[in-house]
Design goal:
With about 190 residues, this protein is mostly helical. The protein contains seven helices and two strands. Strand 1 and strand 2 form a beta hairpin. Helix 1 runs parallel beside helix 3, helix 3 runs antiparallel to helix 4 and helix 4 packs parallel to helix 7.
Length: about 190
């Protein structure tokens, strides 16, 4: 197993650790930028940030050293989606993120994943992520970290960075989803006959 695949596997193993830390409520708190943050959420944010970094790193290494494998092609995006889905669902459970936003994000993820399968079956090619999708992923991960850290700095800056990032993510979620379907409309051409 190459290093890129090991990082993907590590990311998948970090998901239950992240879930455990987030749900293991702590009375101890850390005060940062005027915000009291439960210690368990700080640790959950650290694990989530490290797992998110492995997403960047495994892709970089796979491309740089031509380490692309079927394992990585399947499990890398799956690990990303499982990590983000776990975080968003738990943030809804904690009352931090609106459920309707998470529904839209998860619906887009499932639809685009299905679309990628159809494209791969029809022409054997994998549809690469475009810039709007990369912006969506980046703002999504940053928003999650901010929510995990109780939107720290809100009292200092006077606005919610977590909500700003979440709604930028929502915009790019919808935009990139529509873009994927527009560029892959050929897959559905037989449905209009």
């Amino acid at each position: 197993m190459n290093i890129a695949n090991k990082l993907t596997l590590l990311r998948m193993l970090m998901i239950p650790v992240f879930i455990f830390l987030l749900l293991n409520h702590s009375a101890d708190q850390v005060v940062w930028l005027g915000t009291a943050i439960p210690v368990n959420q700080v640790w959950a944010a650290v694990v989530f940030a490290l797992a998110s970094f492995t997403d960047f790193l495994d892709g970089y290494l796979a491309r740089k050293y031509q380490l692309v494998t079927s394992f990585g092609a399947f499990f890398d995006p799956m690990a990303d989606k499982l990590l983000v889905m776990a975080a968003l669902i738990l943030l809804v459970q904690l009352g931090s993120v609106p459920g309707w936003v998470v529904f839209i994000i998860l619906a887009r993820e499932l639809m685009v994943t299905g679309l990628r399968v159809l494209i791969a079956q029809s022409n054997g090619k994998v549809m690469a992520a475009a810039m709007p999708g990369k912006i969506k992923t980046t703002t999504q991960m940053l928003a999650i970290i901010c929510f995990l850290l109780q939107d720290m700095g809100r009292s200092v800056w006077g606005f919610s960075l977590a909500n700003l990032l979440l709604y930028v993510c929502l915009f790019f979620t919808i935009y990139s989803g529509l873009e994927y379907f527009y560029h892959a409309r050929f897959v559905f051409s037989d449905g209009f006959k």
